[in-house]
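Hey Z.,

So I finally got round to the zinc ion thing we talked about over coffee. Here's the setup:
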Amino acid sequence: MVTKKANKAILLNLLVVAIIIMSKTLLWSYQWPVSPFVGAHPINGTLGEWRETHLHAGVDIGRGTGTEVYPSVDGLIPNPLGAADTYQNRHFIKVLKKKEAGNFEYIHIVPDTTLLNELRSQEGQDYQVTAGVTLLGTVDDQNHLHFEENDGALNPLRVGGLDNYTDTARTYVSTLEFFRQGTEMHRYNW
Ligand SMILES: [Zn+2]
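And the result:
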């Protein structure tokens, strides 16, 4: 027969296990797409900034032209027919997450020639990439890597995002604007 004391001990053990699992899930992070992968690297642009016509959907990692770019997590490059056209002219590579739904996009890069050849030779088959190992390409003349997660739905700077990043910048509001039917009604500046 299980005593009350034993029950209590079992509950306590379960609680400890639950806390460990939860903290792992909350704090799980992924490596940077540029070397050193443990990071951190300069961030020149953040998620949600207003850019003339749209909200910025990712972060700009301040590593210059020619910097090698690798996947942050293991994944799959969708490889439809015509892969050469799909990737060579667009200056980005999209990698689907392997373990969960979602994707990472590596934008403003010149895709690696060897990788493109591999994609061409395996047309129609999703192509496996390994974090920190498969060279995706190098930063193009935009002089920074635009890095996006889940099409902008997730902030790579969140806890559980890019590894070892501590945001020390103070958050502030500089302007607040109110619009009605596209017409500005009020504007406040600080
Ligand atoms: Zn950007």
